[in-house]
Amino acid sequence: MAGGAIASDNAGRLFVSTGNAEGGGEVNQQSPASGRTHLDTLSEAIVNLVVDSQTGVLSQEDYFEPSTYLAMDAGDRDLGAGGVCLPDSTVFSGGGISRLAVACGKNGLCFVTNADNLGGFKMGSAGGDAIVQMITPPGTCHFD
C-alpha cells in the first residue's frame, strides 16, 4: 500500500488493498463470486477485514477484485500499490450509497466502491465490475 496506513471507518472494520499474491493466479477460476465468499488468496483486491470484538481475530468480510486482475498482475500494475481511502460519508455519497472506499493502482485507475458491499469479482453487468465508478485522474502517470 505504498506505505499507506490501514483504513478504518469504525472500531471493527479495516480496509486494505493487495497486489500480487503468491500462487494467486486464477483464484476465482474466472467465475463470478460475491465479495462475501471467502478466498484464501486475494490478489489485486480491496479487502474489508473485521475484528471480532470478543476474540480480536481478523476475518475477511468482503472484497473487490477487478475483472482484469490477471492482466494487472501480469503487467505489474498492482492495485495494492496505493492504500484505501474512506472519504467522509457526510461529504461524499450518492446513488443510495452512503459509504465509499477508493483505491488507485499502478495502472493509473481508481476504483470507487461501496464500502458496505465492495463488489466481489465479476458481479457487474456482462461479467464486469460491480463498483460505483472507475476513474483515471487527470495527469495520471503510470508507475513501474
How many beta strands in the DSSP annotation? 9
Q: How many structural domains are formed by the residues?
A: 1
Average pLDDT works out at 86
Rg of Cα set: 14 Å
Write down the secondary-structure element order.
EEEEHEEEEE
Beginning-to-end CA distance, first to last residue? 15 Å
Q: Work out the helix count.
A: 1
Q: Provide the low-confidence segments as ranges.
A: none
Q: What is the helix fraction of residues, given as a range?
A: under 10%
Proportion of β residues? Answer: 25-35%
Reported for the largest beta sheet, the result is:
5 strands, mixed
Structural class: mainly beta
Categorize the overall geometry. Answer: globular
Instruction: Please give the order of strands in the largest beta sheet.
Output: 1-2-3-4-8
Account of the protein in words:
By secondary structure, this protein is mainly beta. It has one domain (7-26, 34-135). The protein is 4% helix and 28% strand. The strands form two sheets. The chain has a five-stranded mixed β-sheet with strand order 1-2-3-4-8, with no helix packed on it. A four-stranded antiparallel β-sheet has the order 5-6-7-9, with no helix packed on it. A hairpin with a 5-residue loop joins strand 6 (100-104) and strand 7. The protein is globular. The chain starts with 6 loop residues before the first strand and ends in a 9-residue tail after the last strand. The model has no long low-confidence stretch (mean pLDDT 86).
